[in-house]
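In response to reviewer comment 3 from the previous cycle, which asked for concrete evidence that the modeling workflow produces usable outputs, we include below a single protein chain processed end to end. The sequence was submitted unchanged, and the resulting structure tokens are shown without manual editing.
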Amino acid sequence: MSREEISVRQWQEQFKAGVFDSSDFHTQCTAGWYDWFCQDYALAGRLKKIGRIVMGITDPFILDNYYIWFKNNCPLSGPLYDDVRFEPLEGERNGKYFLVSLDSPHERKKWSLFTERYGFDAPEFDCRNVRDMIKYINVIGPELERDVQPPFIAEKCAVITYAKLRGDPAGIQVYRDGDHRFSYASRRSRQMKTVLTAVSLEDTPPGFVSEHAHSIKGMYVYCPEDAGKDLPTPQKSAEIKSSKKEVER
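The workflow returned the following structure tokens.
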């Protein structure tokens, strides 16, 4: 069923006025439900829970330049969970699209924010309460408006490169654990790795050991679990793979 795309601000006004209170199919489609696996009558209750995120938005750019839609997801294992997706009202996404999931069995915390700019392998931000999530979204509104790429985007790229040099395949989930701090589960060693990043060795985050850091993609990275281990060069990695193929033949 198609519906008129309205701004987040207009959606808030209609929600406050009780326009979406009824549990009938037509009303919930108008509210923005696009796909679901639960019973139709359950959508209204689910809307009130996931809608807390939408009602907390105060950033003018998001309020007037985005519309929203909702999805009820059915994972292969675990309970159903919901998300709300924020799409630009006009033009292409251009890195501005984002979504917030609630109680996903795949994620570490209750609320998870996935953004196009960070990538969808892992959340850009996750937290345990709705207040922290609302606060974070309102903070990134001006960044989305000005197409600002925060420093952690480049830091994540360095972490991904580090993981590849350690032998991990593409597509690993790189989580943000705070400023200049990331983590990922190594598929190669089956170990959780922590990676700290710094642009300069004169200004490093707590716990960063400079003598065990590696220079990658214009910044320095340090992994406590790999401290003291040499980092293979791409050339050496390629030689190892080539040697293995020769042996297999």
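The two ends are 57 Å apart (CA to CA). We consider this sufficient to address the reviewer's concern, and the full set will be provided in the supplementary archive.
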